[in-house]
Design goal:
Number of strands: 16
Structural class: alpha+beta
CATH topology of the largest domain: Rossmann fold
Oligomer: single chain
CATH architecture of the largest domain: 3-Layer(aba) Sandwich
Mean pLDDT: 93
Distance between the termini: 62 Å
CATH superfamily of the largest domain: Formyl transferase, N-terminal domain
Family: Belongs to the Fmt family.
Enzyme class: transferase
Largest sheet: 7 strands, mixed
Protein name: Methionyl-tRNA formyltransferase
Number of helices: 8
Organism: Alistipes dispar
Catalytic activity: L-methionyl-tRNA(fMet) + (6R)-10-formyltetrahydrofolate = N-formyl-L-methionyl-tRNA(fMet) + (6S)-5,6,7,8-tetrahydrofolate + H(+)
Length: about 350
């Protein structure tokens, strides 16, 4: 059948889903409804903020459903009234069977990895952190298990040395648009053969769990290339970080960079690192030791050389290139990075 005759229900919340929704509408596909998260308080004023997908759906003149509970009878009834042929999910909540099984052709999800690798909430971050040189996007049919449904289609992308989580996000978002529309066309044409994931060797798979603050702490005892990949994989958000510790006895005034008070044991603020390079070297220094010329460069000792950060952000301060940071931080050598 003509793919543009399919009655499509689109489900998503963040920016990552918006280009695909806009492309479907621009391409003449029949999006009969959009499901997204309820408006939530945000910002200092705690005013209600709508999701990126809701904003786009309103601009496109599409009906919007915002269920608090996906099993609520009123939501299920409203969804059924749309008579969906196909469901499309991009960055949304886990769906109950009553929802994902409702469309007669099923519901497929767009995931930002080459499944079955990197199942989970943070596939873009973990692919870079783990030093992968290739990733991609996958469409797959939803079932009872998270990210384990039958694979429909994939598109591969290289991970370049200069990529971080932010740039790769943009590339995968764009690649996802083409894959979503291609998947819709193939489903409508009946020429797609889903590939089940249960045949994958689970021992060879890398997960992509949600990332919490403590997961972002840098381990300076690791090899330098792993540290650089770790920083890239968390930039620009949530950002890799480290404690910044004043070496005991080096400062008489008890202050940390920027004039903040240090702790009794020489504790300073935390510092986020957004970009870095690695230089191999034998130095015999404690990991986290700082070497700086006080003007243009900071070097941080790691297991097999030096990490040379490009942009830093001290707690409570602006994100700055190292050269600018050092204009107000002349005694960087009196600190070390780490616990």
């Amino acid at each position: 059948m003509d793919a543009r005759q399919l009655r499509i229900v689109f489900m998503g919340t963040p920016e990552f889903a918006v280009p695909s929704l806009r492309a479907l509408v621009a391409g003449g596909y029949n999006v009969v409804g959009v499901v997204t998260a309820p408006d939530k308080p945000a910002g200092r004023g705690r005013q209600l903020r709508e999701s990126d997908v809701k904003t786009a759906a309103r601009e496109l003149g599409l009906p919007v459903l915002q269920p608090e509970r996906l099993k609520a009878p009123e939501f299920v009834g409203a969804l059924r009234a749309l008579r969906p042929d196909l469901g499309i999910v991009i960055a949304f909540r886990m769906l109950p069977e009553v929802v994902w099984a409702m469309p007669r052709l099923g519901t497929f999800n767009l995931h930002a990895s080459l499944l079955p690798q990197y199942r989970g909430a943070a596939p873009i971050n973990w692919a870079i952190i783990n030093g992968e040189r290739e990733t991609g996007v996958t469409t797959f049919l939803l079932n009872h298990e998270i990210d384990k449904g039958a694979i429909l289609a994939q598109a591969r992308l290289p991970i370049l040395p200069q990529d971080n989580a932010g740039t790769l996000y943009e590339k995968l978002m764009t690649a996802g648009v083409a894959l979503v529309t291609r998947t819709v066309e193939r489903i409508a044409a009946g020429d797609i053969a889903p590939v089940e994931q249960q045949y994958a060797d689970e021992a060879t798979l890398r997960p992509a769990p949600k990332i919490f603050k403590e997961d972002c702490r840098i381990d300076w005892t690791l090899p330098g290339r792993r540290i650089v990949d770790f920083i890239r994989g968390l930039a620009p958000y949530p950002a890799a970080w480290s404690d910044l510790i004043r070496e005991e006895g080096d400062r008489k005034d008890g202050t940390a960079p920027g004039g903040e008070s240090g702790g009794a044991a020489g504790d300073g603020p935390s510092v986020k690192i957004f970009s870095a390079a690695f230089e191999a070297a034998a130095h015999g220094l404690r990991p986290g030791t700082v070497a700086s010329d006080g003007r243009t460069e900071i070097r941080i000792a790691c297991a097999d050389g030096w990490i040379i950060p490009g942009e830093l952000q001290l707690a409570g301060k602006k994100r700055l290139p190292v050269r600018e940071l050092l204009l107000g931080w002349r005694d960087a050598n009196q600190y070390r990075f780490g616990r």
